[in-house]
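Why does residue order matter? Because the sequence determines the fold. Keep that principle in mind as you read this record.
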Amino acid sequence: MKDTVIEIDNITKRYRLGTIGGGTLQGDILSWWARIRHKDDPNLKIGEKSYKKNELFTALDGVSFDVKKGETIGLIGRNGAGKSTLLKLLSRVTAPTEGEIRIKGKISSMLEVGTGFHPELTGKENVYLNGAILGMSKKEVDERLDEIIEFSECGQFIDTPVKRYSSGMFVKLAFSVAAHLNSDIMLMDEVLAVGDMAFQKKCIDKMVSAARDEGKTIIYVSHNMQTIRQLCSRGIVLDKGKVVFNGDVEDAINLYLKNDEITAKLYYDFANSHNFNFLTNKVIMDSLEILGKDNCQFKDDEKIRFILKFHCNEDVEKLSFRTLVHNNDQMIVATSVCYNFMSCKKGESYSRVFTMDISTLSNGFYKVIPVMFELDELGNVIDADGVYPGLLFEYEHTTPILWRTKLYGDTVLPDMMCEEN
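Structure:
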């Protein structure tokens, strides 16, 4: 059809598992000689898995759908479902193993906001640099420069090197550049969760306007179901590389939430749960266990008391801990923080007991993301480790309190209390 701008026809993408090449000719020869003698690979670290020569992982398996001009598509799925892989194929970062993708129009990709920003350059200089990386000519940047600066809310600091920006200012400016590209199709991967709540709403309004008023086509990947509702007109659910639903966005969200296989429990082993980007990994959380309960249901003024075990890969002078509380729609509705609760040393393991007051929450089910972090000399947050989900619980109160958080509210819970185990 003439108004179809993207045709995805039976796309399959496979990746070869394991390391390809040992880095040196000698290393490759040693690995080959060990394989033919059915011995352990001498180049592997202790505990590291050795993959067979042609062992493959299928990230996408026979995906097919069309996108029409002006549509806003929400791609939904659990981690590893193939969402980001699909966006990389559409943006031509990589090629499909099988199948064909036909695209009509100019594509702009917002897969990693801020990629290419140089800390020594000023905000204005980085606007031109990032615009060039994203495919804009100098003339196009000149025409949109004032609009980009105004939207970013960084006008006062636009001639200051971005190394002096806060993390919020940095991503605001980076998103503003990407949002003002002269393109027909926009691919976005979790990029609307930037800045404060007011700026996030501003970003969503900008994308809605781009689709409605400028006729741009948007494909958006997010775990935040509220932004999917606000922005998207159609939802596509991916599961293990396959399309399991393509239709009404509300039906897509309900199917995704219904198929969430995560269940509440008293003990969590975090061995395979560290799947966030931009972490320093100075501290690694090992496990979490709820204390003093035989279930995960809390009532009235009950507090959640849990023991967190972790180990340190590097020395950390002042370690802090926060929890992000999500409701069933994946919206962050509350936070609780424990600042500078201890210092830790490389190679050591620790355990601490935390108490979290949840009395201001409304009735419902909640998922908690625990995050270890530290603050730099300017007070910027540097995340060391994060786990999703690190804790699930149900809360029910029997006495109405007017100041409890609403369904999509945002509140700060009382600071967590910390004690040594």
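Residues 361 and 405 are 5 Å apart (CA to CA).
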